Amino acid sequence: MSHDRKFFDKMGLVLGLLVVFTFVIFFVAGAIIEETQNVFVMEDPTYQAELAKRIAPVARVAIAGQSDGAMPGEPEPEPVAAATSGEDIYNSSCVACHGIGIAGAPKVGDHDAWAPRIDQGLPTLYDHAINGYQGDTGMMPPKGGAMSLSDDDVKAAVDYMARLYE
Ligand code: HEC
After folding, report:
1. Which of 90, 98, 118 gets mutated to test ligand 1 (max ligand atoms within 8 A of its CB)?
2. Is the CB of 137 under 6 A from ligand 1?
3. pTM for this structure?
4. Looking at ligand 1, which residue's alpha carbon is closest to its atom 37?
5. Which atom of ligand 1 is found nearest the CA of 153?
6. What does CATH list as the number for 86-165?
7. 94 FRET partner, CA 20 to 30 A, in 78, 141, 150, 165?
């Protein structure tokens, strides 16, 4: 019988150690999670957004004409069209003809071709570019055919071409 007794003693010791080991692992893992996982979760942008929503003030004041459309039931603010530079407009709508001087279009930077035109003054150039122009060398279509351009866009492109002349 003493044989069995010894066996149970040893078995009890091993089981006890396993239980202790389990708790140690459990707390070590908990400590590691505290240091790493939880921090990641806190830093997650989605979590942060949710958190900000939860702690946001309940009431908000909308001032007519000044609110950013963040109130429910309010129309989204119109996206402000990115201002395009004269150079961009020239490159998208004017370069086809004016880049190398197609069909009698005065080539940008061609001093002789532009000198008499610049002499007319910018208002005339604007007018011819916006409304179209039949000259001695060819036909400048209104807005270069890009009717979606605003008058100011065309003026900016004319300014850009006039700058290249200088
Ligand atoms: C389809 C070809 C074409 C495109 C595209 C074009 N042009 Fe022209 N443009 C011409 C031609 C041809 C002339 C010369 C007309 C003439 O004097 O006989 C001209 C002339 C001009 C002149 C000089 C007008 C004057 O009074 O001498 C300006 C300024 C001008 N274009 C601006 C522009 C701008 C800005 C754009 C782009 C938004 C543009 N053009 C796109 C063909 C084009």
Report:
1. 98
2. yes
3. 0.60
4. 94
5. 38
6. 1.10.760.10
7. 78
DSSP state of 56: S
> Which among 147, 144, 148 is positioned nearest to 161, based on CA atoms?
144
User: Which protein residue has the closest C-alpha to ligand 1 atom 26?
Assistant: 125
Give the span between the Cα atoms of 132 and 141, in whole angstroms: 5
Q: Is the shortest distance between the CB of 131 and ligand 1 below 6 Å?
A: no
Per-residue pLDDT of the chain (166 residues; tens, 9 = 90+): 677 888 999 999 999 999 999 999 999 999 888 888 777 777 888 888 888 888 888 877 777 666 565 556 666 666 555 557 889 999 999 999 988 888 889 988 888 888 889 898 899 999 999 999 998 888 999 999 988 999 999 999 999 988 887 6
Q: Domain map of the chain by residue range? A: 1-78, 86-165
